[in-house]
Design a protein that fits this description.
Structural class: alpha/beta
Strand content: 15-25%
Number of strands: 13
Radius of gyration: 22 Å
Largest sheet: 7 strands, parallel
Shape: elongated
Number of helices: 10
Oligomer: single chain
Order of helices and strands: EHEEHEEHHEHEEHEHEHEHEHE
Strand order of the largest sheet: 8-7-6-9-10-11-12
Helix content: 25-40%
């Protein structure tokens, strides 16, 4: 292969997915000699074994925004890049969908349809509306920005929270005073030592009666036992794309908890994903081949 950059890519037809492999890059279907590695999306991979088979590895480009599962196994001197921006549209869309489905009682409508049942008390209770509500976004990064853009037409107020404060964005230390104001709390934080179990019994107790908790981040951010206990009171509701544990085992009490909508971790899995991740991978390969700085570097040396 000469001086070509050897890239191990997860697609059988990399030429099609990437719209053509960049000049100077040789796509291969195995680890031997690979310098640039793109792990499969949401696939089970024995990372220690894979990394051990790639002594020439220089860059790992993920297809996910989260990278906590890879970090402990990353070889010294290897650059790790995440897919920040790739999942913004898809995850933001799902967050809006979960809110609307919960507020407009879509799950109960689906169950009634399965039974061929039109409720006699259909108008005994008005559905909740997103209009005039306050949405608190916890973890205001690129997905949070995408979510706010999609919420703009729903006539609701948005409060932004991130680890570091900036203009218009509160720090996480303000959460105790902000949580009681929120009708909807959307979790978008990465899974770190700082955020693991952040949504505990104290966090949930600060939510107002009738609040909706939406988790499209990582399951470990929420203390599942505390959430099940709070849901059991009927005081709040939840819509979850992720859980802890995951997959959620059959018979787990979260399945039967009242006022919860569970989606099996499909936040990024939409038709918006492949073209966006293909653009990122192709651009990163071109940068790497030409000695330009990579984007989305989250660990290891900059390149």
């Amino acid at each position: 292969m000469g001086d070509l950059v050897r890239a191990w890519l997860p697609w059988e037809d990399s030429e099609r997915v990437l719209g053509g492999v960049p000049d100077g890059v040789a796509a291969q279907d195995g680890p031997e000699g690979a310098e640039f590695y793109v792990p499969p999306y949401m696939g089970a991979v024995d990372l220690p074994a894979v990394f051990a088979a790639m002594p020439s590895l220089k860059v790992v480009q993920l297809q996910t925004a989260g990278y906590e599962a890879v970090l402990p196994h990353l070889p010294e001197g290897v650059t790790l890049c995440n897919a920040r921006g790739v999942h913004d549209a898809s995850t933001a869309e799902l967050a809006v969908g979960l809110i609307l489905a919960s507020y407009r009682r879509i799950p109960s409508a689906v169950r009634n349809q399965d039974r061929g049942h039109w409720p006699a008390d259909n108008y005994a209770r008005m559905d909740d509306s997103l209009a005039d509500r306050t949405v608190l976004i916890v973890g205001y990064g690129s997905i949070g920005e995408a979510l706010e853009r999609r919420l703009a037409g729903f006539e609701c107020e948005v409060i932004r929270v991130a680890r570091r404060p900036r203009d218009g964005v509160h720090p996480t230390t303000d959460l105790p005073e902000l949580l009681p104001r929120a009708d909807v709390v959307v979790l978008l934080t990465p899974a770190t030592d700082e955020t693991r179990g952040m949504v505990d019994a104290k966090f949930l107790a600060r939510l107002k009666d009738g609040a909706l908790l939406v988790n499209v981040a990582r399951g470990v951010i929420v203390d599942t036992d505390a959430l099940v206990a709070e849901l059991g009171t009927g005081r709040i509701s939840a819509a979850l794309d992720v859980t802890d544990p995951e997959p959620l085992p059959s018979g787990h009490p979260l399945w039967s908890a009242p006022n919860v909508l569970i989606n099996p971790h499909r936040g990024g899995a939409s038709t918006a994903f492949e073209p966006r991740v293909a653009r990122l991978v192709r651009a990163q390969l071109e940068r790497f081949t030409h000695g330009e700085a990579l984007v989305n570097v989250v660990a290891g040396p900059p390149r």
